[in-house]
Amino acid sequence: MKELNLDRVNLGRTVGAALIPPVSLVVGAWLMTLTDNVWNKVVFMIVISVINLSVALALYGRVLKTDWPKFRVHIWRNLLLAISGAALTYVVIGLVRSGLGLAGLNFGMAQTGNVLAFSTMEQATLGLGAAISPLLAPFTEEIIFRHALFFQFNRNKVGLCAMFVVSSVAFGLVHWNNFHGDIVAMVPYMAAGAWFALIYFWSKNIWQNIATHFFFDFVQVISAVVLFFVALFNN
């Protein structure tokens, strides 16, 4: 594969990256209609996540390789900033939800849906499996929404500003299935997308975004692990 030129926008790669979320949403929704077995649905969800990440890395993996040495130099400082950024992401989402009158909406949006609410051993194990997708999402989504659909346009101020809006809105819309198509419920995640874009603009390092997003989603993983052990000791 031809090496990625980080100094210019590659339209083919950009379109390819932009197609990953809508295609996965459509295919995922279709796969969910093929079975009523929740274990199969979790497997489908994981497989789609792995495929999405693989395609994103094939298109823009060079960006991660280029930025990693710079991120690693001050890794503890950067990780602390990422944790702080993740905490502020919850604040941003909470403030927007409050402003929209959605304060009572469950924070646990992401890929796992309501799976993490289970309490029996079988259900807790299912939730643990479903938590795999949020571990992969930060890599895929930051490559797509923050690099391909935003920061790579940084040589053109007008284009960068336009893609700031486009990428933020698109990031909110990718949670379509999580909120059953409720556009208003997705607005807080559009705000989160804007916040992540600002982090990339300030840091100019994709790993800062990946780490921040990872810590944000890791709350769900912790919830799944805690519920698993609670169910384990109660059975």
Automatic annotation (TrEMBL):
Span of domain CAAX prenyl protease 2/Lysostaphin resistance protein A-like: 130-219
Entry keywords, A to Z: Membrane, Transmembrane, Transmembrane helix
Gene Ontology BP, a term: CAAX-box protein maturation
A Pfam family it matches: Rce1-like
Molecular function as annotated in GO: endopeptidase activity
InterPro entries: CAAX_protease, Rce1/LyrA-like_dom
Keyword Membrane attributed: yes
Bilayer-spanning residue ranges: 12-31, 43-63, 75-96, 116-137, 158-177, 183-202, 214-233
Family: Belongs to the UPF0177 family.
PANTHER family the record matches: CAAX AMINO TERMINAL PROTEASE FAMILY PROTEIN (PTHR36435:SF1), SLR1288 PROTEIN (PTHR36435)
Protein name: ABC superfamily ATP binding cassette transporter permease subunit
Species, as recorded: Secundilactobacillus kimchicus JCM 15530
